[in-house]
Write a structure and sequence with these properties.
Radius of gyration: 20 Å
CATH class: Mainly Alpha
Strand content: 5-15%
Number of strands: 9
Oligomer: single chain
Number of domains: 1
Distance between the termini: 7 Å
CATH architecture: Orthogonal Bundle
Shape: globular
CATH topology: Cytochrome p450
Helix content: 40-55%
């Protein structure tokens, strides 16, 4: 792999992208990348301005859902997700979700994740492949447990969320879309079965979002979907840095804050200019796509040195605290097994994702 990424998208899976990101933030805070066909906001001020501007939408005005989703269940569900909507009710919907998530004690999420991880380690011998399954499964299963969803068939639940994520990927083919539609129906059934006995987080969400059961169901599924790659990447990164001698298993807030800033999972997000948007003497034309390079903006020496892994502004991810606690719990269980961290992480490589840096430790999916 070359010493310098070719562009901000290639940087996501580069071995050492952070000097490049810092240089990009300093030298080219806002520019048009002809090769990518995208405007790029890499400086802290530019990124924050994009994320804060009502003229920079999370979806194009004429495309509330990605066109490949068609007009089926995937598209309808996508349009109901609070993080993917610019509808007038969005602020109230987002506030309701934030309030409901705030009712969950971080310690409760961490304990549940640690318990699930310990059970996993009893059932299967420790290996890179097991790490990958834990990384993907722990966020989904912990959230499902907090929501009161049926998790007896845990592998099927994780597979359904993974199929949904694959269907929403930009390169999804017809088969992936069909599997995603089927997975969505299965997830709807799970949420529907849990609603009559709703307690805890699901009860808080139901209270916040009633009487709109469609929005409730969609956003519960959305929470599971959003946890998948972000949660997997966070746990896998924690394992990697534990192997490098950083004591993350102790749960020190400063160490996890360092991880979020210096090796984040989510590296970029996109916005779409509704009208001509100006910043720093430049104009982004109407209809243009903007790549907001969160990982670069966070490292900009001109900025405050704050992590942006979970975004900022009105579409920031509301699950940051939960994601951190779930990763902490999983890592604590793994540390208790006293593994050889160096051996466990020797085959580390990255999944091919355009926006998330997710390490995998098994023998499949190499990026190089």
């Amino acid at each position: 792999m070359s010493a310098w990424p070719s562009d901000p998208l290639a940087a996501v899976v580069h071995a050492h992208p952070y000097p490049y990101y810092q240089d990009l933030a300093q030298r080219r805070p806002l520019y048009f990348d002809a090769g990518l066909g995208l405007w790029v906001a890499a400086g802290h001020a530019a990124a924050q301005a994009v994320l804060a501007s009502a003229a920079c939408r999370v979806r194009p005005l004429e495309q509330p859902a990605p066109p490949p989703l068609g007009d089926g269940g995937l598209a309808r569900t996508f349009c109901l997700w609070a993080r993917m909507s610019e509808a007038p009710r969005h602020p109230a919907l987002k506030a309701a979700l934030n309030h409901a998530l705030a009712t969950v004690a971080g310690a409760e999420a961490g304990r549940l994740a640690e318990s699930l991880a310990r059970d996993w380690l009893v059932r299967e011998p420790l290996s890179g492949g097991l790490l990958d399954r834990m990384a993907q499964g722990l966020p989904v299963l912990t959230l499902a447990g907090l929501l009161g969803l049926e998790v007896e068939d845990a592998p099927a639940l994780v597979a359904e969320v993974a199929a949904l994520a694959q269907a929403l990927a930009a390169d999804a083919d017809a088969k992936a879309l069909a599997r995603g539609e089927a997975a969505l129906e299965a997830l709807r059934a799970r949420v529907g079965a849990a609603l009559p006995r709703a307690g805890g987080l699901l009860a808080a969400l139901r209270h916040a979002l009633e009487p709109d059961e469609a929005a409730l169901t969609a956003n519960v599924i959305g929470l599971l979907f959003q946890s998948l790659d972000a949660g997997a990447g966070l746990f896998a990164a924690a394992v990697w840095h534990q192997a490098q001698g950083r004591p993350l298993e102790a749960g020190a807030a400063a160490e996890w804050a360092w991880l979020a800033l210096h090796d984040p999972v989510l590296h970029n997000t996109r916005r779409f200019a509704e009208g001509g948007w100006r910043h720093g003497g430049q104009t982004v034309p109407a209809g243009a796509s903007i790549l907001v390079v969160l990982a670069a903006a966070a490292l900009d020496p001109a900025g405050p040195g704050e992590a942006l892994m979970f975004g900022a502004g009105r579409h920031a991810c509301p699950g940051q605290a939960l994601a951190m606690e779930i990763a902490r719990g999983g890592l604590a269980a793994l540390a208790a097994a006293r593994p050889d961290w160096q051996v466990l992480t020797a085959a580390a490589h990255f999944r091919r994702l355009p926006n998330a840096r997710v390490r995998i430790y098994g023998d499949k999916g190499r990026t190089e």
